[in-house]
Amino acid sequence: MDSKITNSILYLDNVSVSFDGFRALNALSFVIEPGELRAIIGPNGAGKTTMMDIITGKTRPDQGEVYFDGAIDLTRKDEAEIAQLGIGRKFQKPTVFESHTIWDNLELALNRKRGVFSTLFYRLTTEDKARIEHILETVRLTARKNDYAANLSHGQKQWLEIGMLLAQEPKLLLVDEPVAGMTDAETSETALLLKDIAKTRSVVVVEHDMGFIRDLGVKVTCLAEGSVLAEGSIDFVSNDPKVIENYLGR
Amino acid sequence: MITEFLLSRHEKKTLVVAALILLAAILVPLANLLAPEGSLLHVPDHLVPLMGKYLCYALLALALDLVWGYCGILSLGHGAFFALGGYAMGMYLMRQIGPRGVYANPLLPDFMVFLNWKELPWYWTGFNHFWFAGLMVLLVPGLLAFVFGWFAFRSRVTGVYLSIITQAMTYALLLAFFRNEMGFGGNNGLTDFKDILGANIQAPETRATLFAMTALLLALSLILSSAIVRSKYGKVLIGVRDAESRTRFLGYRVENMKLFIFTVSAMMAGIAGALYVPQVGIINPGEFAPANSIEVVIWTAVGGRGTLIGPIIGAILVNFGKTIFTAAFPEFWLFALGALFIATTLFLPKGIVGTVMQGSKARAERQKAVAAEKGRTAAQPSQGAAAHETQAAE
C-alpha cells in the first residue's frame, strides 16, 4: 500500500462523481496530514460541498479512493458509521436542534453510545456534565445554556454547531463556511477558535472570506471545476494566474 | 432499571393528567354501579362503554403522537394497527362463544360454518386462550410495523411519500379483510360476542371493569410515553424530526431510532384496538378505512401534537363533539370535521394544549424579564423597587 495512505488522516485519490452528466468532481486528489489545518477555496460549483458529501458518506464516488486515518475505506461506509469513526461535519447553513436547549444540543452530540437502548437508559454522569460545561466555555455559550437554540443569533448558532462537533470528539473536522454572516469581530474570534481546535485534531475549512483565510495562515487548496487548481500558502495561491483567472478575478 | 426509568423525570402536567385518568378509572365504575339510578352522581349504563371508547381513541391518538409529534413521521395508517389489535381480541371473543352460536358448532365460529368450512384455519389456533390473544394484540401490529418500518426507513422514505405508503398499507389490509377467504368474517367482521374471561360481556359490571382497564392502560401508556420522550432517546427523536441529517452526521442511526418508536407506537395502537372491541361489540374491515386513520391525525392536531396530553384531550373532545353532532345534524359531521381541521391548521397550528403551553411560557419569559429589570433597579434599592419585587414574585 502507498505510504501516503498509512500516514495521512485523509487521503483522496482520483475521486470523480457525476450528477446527471454534470461532473461535480473530476479526478480530485489531495491529502490532509494529522493535526493539519487546511483551508479550501474555490468558486461556486467547484465541488467543495460535494467533496464533503463524499468524505462523510452522503454521496458515493463513481471512482477513486477515499481513506481516513490510514487505511479505513470511507466509500464503503454510511454517514452514521463515518461520524462514529471520528469525522465531524459543520454545514454551510448552521444546523442545530432548534427546539432543544443549548445544553441538550451538546448532550446529544457527546461521543457516547448511540444505540436506541443506550440512549433510552442514558444518565448524565458527572464526567459528561464536566465535558459539556467545558465545551460551553470554549464556545462562550455558558450563560445561555438553558435557552432554546432557536433563540440564538446566527453567529451563536455557528458557534454552537462547532461546539457540537467538539463534543463529538472527532479526529477530523470538516467545516463549511463557518464565518458566513458573522461580524468582523466574530470572524476573527472564530479563526482563533479553529486554530485552537486544530492543535488536537485535523481541520478542513471551506471558506470564501479571504481575510479569514489570511487570519488562519495555513496551507490553502484552491478547487475549480472539480479538481485541484493550486495548493500552497495563501500568497502563493493568490498569485497563481490560474487562481486569479478562475476565482479571484483580475 | 425499568422501574427507575418509568419513575423518573415527568412533567407535572403529565402526572396530573395521568392521575385524573386513574381517578376516572375508579369513579366512573363506582358512579355507574353504586350510585342509585336517578341520582345526580349516577352514570347511566350506555355512557360507560361510550366513555371507554373515547379513552381507546385517546390511546390511539397518543400512539400516533409518539411518531408524528416527536419523530415527524406522519402515519396515515395507524388505524391499521388499531384494527389488527382489535381483530386479535375479536378472535378470542369469537372462540369464547363456543356452541352458543346460531349453528351451535363447538369449534367453528358461525361465519365459517356458513362458508362450509370443516376445520379451523391454523391461524385461529391458540386464540381460545386469553393470554395468547393478548400476546398477539402486541405482536401482530408490532411485527407489521417492524417489517414495514424496516424497509421504509432503511430506504429513507420520508415526508409525504411515507404518509402515502402508510395509507396504502391500511387500504391493502382493508381490501384483504373484506375477503371471506381470509377467514376473518369478511365484511361482517367479528361480532355477537358473549363472554370475556368468563364474564358476560353485556353485564354492567364487565363494562365497568373494561372501562377501568382502559383508563388504567391509558394512564400507564402516558407515563411510559413520557419516560420515552424525556429520555436522551426522546431528545434524539426530536432531533430527527427537526434536523434529520444533523442527527445522522452526529453518528445516530436514524433508521433504528425511527423503527423503535414506530414499533412501540403500533403496539400501543394495538392495545387500544383490543380494548375497543369488547366495548363496542364488533370489529369489521371498516376499521381499516383510510378515513379512520386520517381522523386520528385530526384529533392529534386539534389537541396539540408533540405534547402527549394534547392528543388525549383532542381525541376525547372531538369524539364527544362527534357524538353530539352526529345525533343532531348527522349529514353535516364530515363538513364540521373538515372545517375543524382547517381551522386548527390556520389558527391553532400547535393545537389546544400547544397553544396554552406557549402562552404560559411567554408569560414566564415576561416575568423573567421583569425580574431581570428588578435586579438592575435593586442596585439602588428604594421602597418602590421593593413593592415592584413583591409584585413580580406573584
Automatic annotation (TrEMBL), chain A:
<dbReference type="InterPro" id="IPR032823">
    <property type="entry name" value="BCA_ABC_TP_C"/>
</dbReference>
<dbReference type="Pfam" id="PF00005">
    <property type="entry name" value="ABC_tran"/>
</dbReference>
<keyword id="KW-0813">Transport</keyword>
<dbReference type="InterPro" id="IPR027417">
    <property type="entry name" value="P-loop_NTPase"/>
</dbReference>
<dbReference type="InterPro" id="IPR051120">
    <property type="entry name" value="ABC_AA/LPS_Transport"/>
</dbReference>
<keyword id="KW-0547">Nucleotide-binding</keyword>
<dbReference type="GO" id="GO:0016887">
    <property type="term" value="F:ATP hydrolysis activity"/>
</dbReference>
<dbReference type="GO" id="GO:0005886">
    <property type="term" value="C:plasma membrane"/>
</dbReference>
<dbReference type="InterPro" id="IPR003439">
    <property type="entry name" value="ABC_transporter-like_ATP-bd"/>
</dbReference>
<dbReference type="Pfam" id="PF12399">
    <property type="entry name" value="BCA_ABC_TP_C"/>
</dbReference>
<dbReference type="GO" id="GO:0005524">
    <property type="term" value="F:ATP binding"/>
</dbReference>
<dbReference type="InterPro" id="IPR017781">
    <property type="entry name" value="ABC_transptr_urea_ATP-bd_UrtD"/>
</dbReference>
<protein>
    <submittedName>
        <fullName>Urea ABC transporter ATP-binding protein UrtD</fullName>
    </submittedName>
</protein>
<dbReference type="InterPro" id="IPR003593">
    <property type="entry name" value="AAA+_ATPase"/>
</dbReference>
<keyword id="KW-0067">ATP-binding</keyword>
<feature type="domain" description="ABC transporter">
    <location>
        <begin position="10"/>
        <end position="250"/>
    </location>
</feature>
TrEMBL record, chain B:
<feature type="region of interest" description="Disordered">
    <location>
        <begin position="368"/>
        <end position="394"/>
    </location>
</feature>
<feature type="transmembrane region" description="Helical">
    <location>
        <begin position="76"/>
        <end position="94"/>
    </location>
</feature>
<feature type="transmembrane region" description="Helical">
    <location>
        <begin position="15"/>
        <end position="35"/>
    </location>
</feature>
<keyword id="KW-1003">Cell membrane</keyword>
<feature type="transmembrane region" description="Helical">
    <location>
        <begin position="210"/>
        <end position="229"/>
    </location>
</feature>
<keyword id="KW-1133">Transmembrane helix</keyword>
<feature type="transmembrane region" description="Helical">
    <location>
        <begin position="297"/>
        <end position="320"/>
    </location>
</feature>
<keyword id="KW-0812">Transmembrane</keyword>
<dbReference type="InterPro" id="IPR043428">
    <property type="entry name" value="LivM-like"/>
</dbReference>
<feature type="transmembrane region" description="Helical">
    <location>
        <begin position="259"/>
        <end position="277"/>
    </location>
</feature>
<feature type="transmembrane region" description="Helical">
    <location>
        <begin position="332"/>
        <end position="353"/>
    </location>
</feature>
<dbReference type="InterPro" id="IPR017778">
    <property type="entry name" value="ABC_transptr_urea_perm_UrtC"/>
</dbReference>
<dbReference type="GO" id="GO:0005886">
    <property type="term" value="C:plasma membrane"/>
</dbReference>
<feature type="transmembrane region" description="Helical">
    <location>
        <begin position="160"/>
        <end position="178"/>
    </location>
</feature>
<dbReference type="GO" id="GO:0015658">
    <property type="term" value="F:branched-chain amino acid transmembrane transporter activity"/>
</dbReference>
<protein>
    <submittedName>
        <fullName>Urea ABC transporter permease subunit UrtC</fullName>
    </submittedName>
</protein>
<keyword id="KW-0472">Membrane</keyword>
<feature type="transmembrane region" description="Helical">
    <location>
        <begin position="47"/>
        <end position="70"/>
    </location>
</feature>
<feature type="transmembrane region" description="Helical">
    <location>
        <begin position="129"/>
        <end position="153"/>
    </location>
</feature>
<dbReference type="Pfam" id="PF02653">
    <property type="entry name" value="BPD_transp_2"/>
</dbReference>
<dbReference type="InterPro" id="IPR001851">
    <property type="entry name" value="ABC_transp_permease"/>
</dbReference>
